[in-house]
Here is the input.
Amino acid sequence: MQVNKPHREFHAVDMNTGLEHAPRLSAGIEQKVLAGTLNEERRSGSRTRLLRFRPRGVTPPRPSSTNIGKRST
Here is the structure.
């Protein structure tokens, strides 16, 4: 099986930008996609991501309009 993700090891990840609500997961769980070409409709591909779980009762800050829908590279 071929993997279409760049091979990246030991690089700094900016956890202050690029976080978004993880689809189909509970509120308070955010994701940052690091690499991947996942096609959810065809159920193929792969994705590497970091998940951040906020403590219960903590409201996440509202994202600024400049970060919505953008992913850092």
In short: The chain has a mean pLDDT of 76. Residues 1-6+16-58 form one domain.
